[in-house]
Amino acid sequence: MGRSRRRLDYQADKLEQVLAAYKAPARVQGGTVTPRLVRFHLLPARGTKVAAIANLAEELALSLGVPSARVSRRGGQIEVEIPREQPAIVRLDRLFQEVADVPHATAILGVDDEGAPLLLRIASPEVAHALICGTTGSGKTVLARTMILSLARYHSAHDLGLVLIDPKGRGYAPLAGLPHLARPVATTAAEALSVLKWLVGLMERRDRDGATSPRLVCFIDELADLMLVAGHDMEALLTRLTQRGRSAGIHVVACTQKPTTAVIGSLVKSNFPVRIVGSVVSPEDAKVATGLKQTGAEKLLGRGDFLLVLKGSTHRFQAAFANSETMAQLVEKLRGGRKPSQNGQVAAATGTDGGFIGDLKDRVTQLRLVK
C-alpha cells in the first residue's frame, strides 16, 4: 500500500473518530483526489444532522492537521474537503492536448472536482456575462487569461473577437499581440470608456441590422477600480451592455475583488448571471460574492481555487494556469496564422482505487460543459 493511500485511510479514520466524539457519527464511503483537494464522502448515521457536521469544520481541520476544512452537501451524501499536502498545478497547455474542440464561444476554465476539464459556453443564454470575484491572490487575472487564451486557441479571429480592458496595465499585457483583439488593450479609465462606448454603438448597430457576428467578448480587469474613477458613465455603459449585449453577440467577463452594490452598482451586478468566486475573507463576503448562503467560499484556498455559481448551483474547480512561456508561444503561433498542434483528445476515465481517485495525470476524463 502506497504512502498516499495510507495517508488517506488515516485521515478517513480520523474523521470518523472526531465526528463520533462530538456525537455526530458518520461513515466515510470513499472520496476523490483533485489537483488541490482531498474530498471525503460521508454517510451520516441516522439522526445525525448536516448542520452538526458543518459546525465541526474547524475541529475536523485541527484534527487532520490542515489549514481548513469545507463541509458541503451533495445529494444524500455530505462531503468534507481538505487541501492536499502537495497540490498539483493544472496546466493549460496540457488541457489543450486533452480538449480536441469546443462549441462556439466556449472557454476553458480548468478542471472540475471530478478531474474533468471544465468549459464555459459564454454564448449560452444562461451565461451571457460572467463576474469573477475574489481577494488579491485568489487567481482572478490568471483565470481571465486562461479564458482569453482558450477562446483564441479554438476560434479564428474572423469568428470571435476580444476586447481587453486592463487598468493596471499588467494583467493582459502578455496577450496584447493576439490577432483576435478588436481594439488595442485599454489601460486607462478614459480608454476604457472609449472602448465601452464603441461596444455600445456596435451593439446598437447590430440591433438595427439583426447582426450577431463575429461574437465579441470583453474582459475587464479590476472593475471596481474603474468604477471608482469613471463612476456613473462606466456604470451606465456596462448596464446597457450587460442588459442587451448577448442578443447582439457581445459578452462581458469582469473581475473585481468585492462585488458589492456600492462598488459596481445594482444594475451591473444583477446582469451577470454567472459568478466565478475565488477566496474571500468571511461568510458575509461569500454571500455577497456568490449571491447564495453557506457556499463555504470563505474556505477556498486561493491561487485558482474557485466556485462557479450558475442558476443557484455551485461547481468547485481549479483554474488552469499558463506560465509566461506558454502565453508567449501561443500568442506567437496565433500571430503567425499557425494553428497550435493538437496532440491528444479526451479519453475515458480510468478506474479508481478503493473509492479514491488518483492524481490528474492518471485520470483523463470526459469534458464537462457548463451552459
For the sheet with most strands, the description reads: 10 strands, mixed
- How many beta-strand elements? 14
Structural class: alpha/beta
Architecture of the largest domain, CATH level 2? Answer: 3-Layer(aba) Sandwich
CATH class of the largest domain: Alpha Beta
Distance between the termini: 41 Å
- So how many helices? 11
Strand content: 15-25%
Strand order of the largest sheet: 8-9-10-7-11-12-13-5-6-14
Shape: globular
Q: How many whole angstroms does the radius of gyration measure? A: 21 Å
Q: Uncertain runs with pLDDT below 50, 5 residues or more? A: 341-367
Short structural summary:
This protein has about 375 residues and is an alpha/beta fold. Helices cover about 35% and strands about 20% of the residues.
